[in-house]
Amino acid sequence: MPRLQKNDNFIDKTFTVLADIVLKILPTSKEEKQAFYYYRNGMSAQAEGEYAEALENYYEALALEEDPYDRSYILYNIGLIYASNGEHIQALEYYHQALELNNKLTQALNNIAVIYHYQGLKAANKNNLDISKSMFDKAAEYWQQAVYLAPNNYIEAQNWLKTTGRNKNNFI
C-alpha cells in the first residue's frame, strides 16, 4: 500500500501515479511489486526526514528484491540515511555493498570520497598528518573513479584532485 505523502507536490504525485500504472502493466512478480512499494515508501519517508520509517521500508524492500541493480540503489539509500545521521562507518558499509552489486554507481563512489575527505579534514585539524594524508588519498581514489565514469559531474572533486595533485590517472 502506498505511503501517504505529507509534501505532495505535482512531481511526486505524478511519479506515484505513473509508477502504479507501470507496476500494473509490467509482468512482475508479487515480490517485485512489493519490493518496489517498500522502496518508493522509503524514498518518500526519507524525503520527509522520517529516517527510521525510511530504513524500515528499505530493509523490507531489500528482503524482497532479487535484482542486483535494484538492490544496489536500496543499499545506496540506506547508506545515505546513515551518512546524514553522521554514522559514517555504517554508511561506508552500505555504499560498498551497493558498489559490489553495481560498480558504476557514481553517487556511491562520490559519497565514499566525501566521507574520506571529511575524515581527512578532521585528522588535519587534530594535526594527525599521516591519517589525514591516508584519508585524502582514499578520497582521491574514489573521486577518480567517479569522475572517470561521469566526467561531466563532480566538478568540485575534479578541482580538488587537480589542486592537490591527486589526479594521477589523468581522468580529468
TrEMBL record:
Membrane topology per the entry is:
Peripheral membrane protein
Keyword set, alphabetical order:
Chloroplast, Membrane, Photosynthesis, Plastid, Repeat, Thylakoid, TPR repeat
Q: Which Pfam families match?
A: TPR_1
Q: Does the keyword Chloroplast apply?
A: yes
**Known function:** Seems to be required for the assembly of the photosystem I complex.
Supply the name of the protein: Photosystem I assembly protein Ycf3
**TPR repeat boundaries on the chain:** 35-68, 35-68, 72-105, 72-105, 120-153
Give the protein family.
Belongs to the Ycf3 family.
UniProt GO cellular component terms: chloroplast thylakoid membrane
This protein's superkingdom?
Eukaryota
- GO BP, one example? photosynthesis
Where can this protein be found? Plastid, Chloroplast thylakoid membrane
Question: Is the keyword Ion transport in the record?
Answer: no
Organism lineage: Eukaryota, Rhodophyta, Florideophyceae, Rhodymeniophycidae, Gigartinales
